[in-house]
From TrEMBL:
InterPro entries: ABC_Gly_betaine_transp_sub-bd. Residues 1-27 form the signal peptide. Keywords: Signal. It comes from the Bacteria. It comes from Actinoplanes sichuanensis. SUPFAM superfamilies: Periplasmic binding protein-like II (SSF53850). CDD domains: PBP2_BCP_2. This is ABC transporter substrate-binding protein.
Length: 320
């Protein structure tokens, strides 16, 4: 998606007509399903964070807002923290996929009262450390984090120097990996792939070439249907164990992903806000659309239309 791009659609005007032959009353002719009667939602400003699952959310939500409700949609490609700042300055109306961020909720929802929660997306989020499946098969005990130092030599690269490489994704992703490595006393250093695409390419190559790789990854993610990366559990997550980012020594918490809206926009009664409150789907839904966009070469609109055409009974329930 292009930053700030407005995606206009032609909206058909449907008039009300009296039924012929009715002498005492008039009846409206109902518009065909999917044709908006008017545009009461104006332009909806959606933040798009830099991972394919989020882009899939934005594609389907944008497509349905435009085609079914007559809205216009403007998307802005932003980091997670910049998206919340956009709620504050009014440039963003909604964040479609929020991964926790209790600190930002306290700031913008509890204290400043400029944002509100819009309910769950239906997606279950998992963050963590992964290795390609060939490694787990060849070195079965590598899936115990306590054994990682024994294999650190395997993971050395030109970028990691004397330590094993831990491959992270986009530097803007909010993660605990540098602190985890330090606090768990692991002989590794974080190296950034630079983007989700590069992270996926690195894991794909590591599996194909049987080269060692340890890195950050997450679900939902369409790539896991191609290469079933193996998750390495860290010390069990307990509520509050990650409250101090510098001292964290536990695994990532499991997330029920949610949506965040700009309070003034939601309180205005905008029907798009109601639609987004109602919108819920599954990891499989998101992965299907994301894979069509990233691997199968479909545009965001075509991927969204393909999903919508096959799931009408799902999304009709989201309409206000």
């Amino acid at each position: 998606m292009v930053t700030g791009r407005i995606l206009p659609r032609v909206i058909a005007a449907i008039g009300l007509a009296a039924l012929a032959g009715c002498s005492t009353s008039e009846a409206a002719i109902s518009p065909p399903p999917g044709v908006p009667v008017n545009n009461r939602c104006g332009t909806v400003n959606i933040a798009v964070n830099p991972w394919s699952g989020y882009a899939a959310n934005a594609a389907v939500v944008s497509y349905l807002l435009e085609s079914e409700m007559g809205c216009k949609v403007a998307t802005a490609e932003l980091s997670e923290t910049a998206s919340w700042a956009g709620l504050n300055d009014g440039s963003i109306d909604v964040i479609l996929e929020n991964w926790g961020h209790d600190d930002l909720k306290k700031k913008y929802i509890d204290r400043q009262k400029i944002a509100v929660e819009l309910g769950l997306t239906g997606n279950k989020g998992v963050l963590g450390w992964y290795v390609p499946p060939w490694m787990a098969k060849t070195y079965p005990d590598i899936t115990d984090w306590k054994n990682l130092n024994e294999y650190a030599e395997l993971f050395k690269t030109a970028k990691s120097g004397a330590k094993g490489q831990f491959l992270a994704g986009d530097p803007s992703f909010v993660s605990n990996d540098p602190a985890l490595i330090e606090n768990l006393k692991l002989n590794f250093t974080v190296v950034y792939a630079g983007s989700e695409d590069k992270l996926i390419a690195a894991f794909r190559k590591a599996q194909a070439d049987k080269t060692p790789l340890l890195g950050y990854f997450y679900e939902p993610q369409w790539f896991l249907s191609d290469v079933k990366l193996v998750h390495i559990p860290l010390p069990n997550y307990t509520p509050g164990c990650d409250s101090d980012p510098e001292k964290v020594a536990c695994d990532y918490q499991p997330y029920d992903l949610d949506k965040i809206g700009r309070k003034a926009w939601v309180d205005s009664g905008n029907p798009a806000a109601t639609f987004i409150k109602n919108w819920q789907w599954t990891n499989a839904d998101q992965n299907q659309v994301a894979k069509d966009m990233v691997q199968n070469g479909l545009s965001a609109e075509d991927a969204a239309k393909k999903w919508a055409d096959a799931h009408r009974t799902v999304w009709e329930k989201w309409l206000p």
